Amino acid sequence: MLNNIIYSVNAVFPLIVLIFFGFCLKQEKLGLFKNPKEFFNQIDRLVFHVALPVYIFNEIANADIQNIFNINLVVYCVSGIIISFLLLLFIVPVFIKNRPSRGAFIQGIYRTNFAILGVPLAGNLFDNGSATAALILPFAVALFNILAVVILTVNSENPGDTQNQNNISGILLGIIKNPLIIAIIIALPFMLLKIQLPEAINKSVNYIANMSTPLALISLGSGIDLKVLKSKVKLSLIASIFKTVICPVIFVIPAILLGFRDAALVVIFVLFAAPTAVSSYIMAKNMKSDYELAGQIIVLTTIICPVTIFAGSFILKSLGFI
Q1: Helix and strand tally (H, E) in the chain?
Q2: For 198, what's the count of Cα atoms within 13 Å in the CB-facing half-sphere?
């Protein structure tokens, strides 16, 4: 029992510390930065456009595909995302009549922050976890974005708006130009052909890759704004409970029954238990959805998820599944 608690603490606590550190750093009372919001916006850009793509490239390029690639895992994760989306698509309209709120609510549940938090967390929970998660990443990122375009367009203030249609084409182009997708495409030949970078370049890549997780988590913490939690608390709380508790249970139990274990099960758990993607707020705002609700769901899931991930990892470890 004690060993399992220590295991879960070692996996989750460092992430909580960095998220809390980021939350503290942005406080204007400290006076560390003239404009904390602008500073962390720049950190976000550095992480998304440089550090995280290099991290993903490094994980995939150095991965042993024979040991970690699992077509059954890919099919299960993709199917899980689609099934959760379709269930929400049919169930949520019964309870939420307002179109913009409905779109933001659905996106907040099925879409996770898998790239920034999920991949490093999978690495903390199990050996080869990061590499296995990185191979799932292109499918998850593309699917999350495509489904978001669909649900936010259908549930916008004006579904027939030509500006929305322009947003769709722009977002689909953005998926193709996504730095994470580009990093994955570049890394694939290195992995498949076992190409090794020169030692000097490899060390430089490792330095940049190693700074991605701390910066991403600090930036994630800086984005927590407790003042946002003032309106629509009921909807955002319901969505957050579904996201952090119900979704992991729904998809982890069948995964166990189907025989997924170790790194594969960790990836499934993290994929469905991670907090809502930060980019869902930007997309909701640009596509005339309820961006306030989207922002509240991000804040609440980010606050709740360390507790639920700790509990989930402890249970899975105690039962011998990871």
Answers
A1: 16, 0
A2: 2
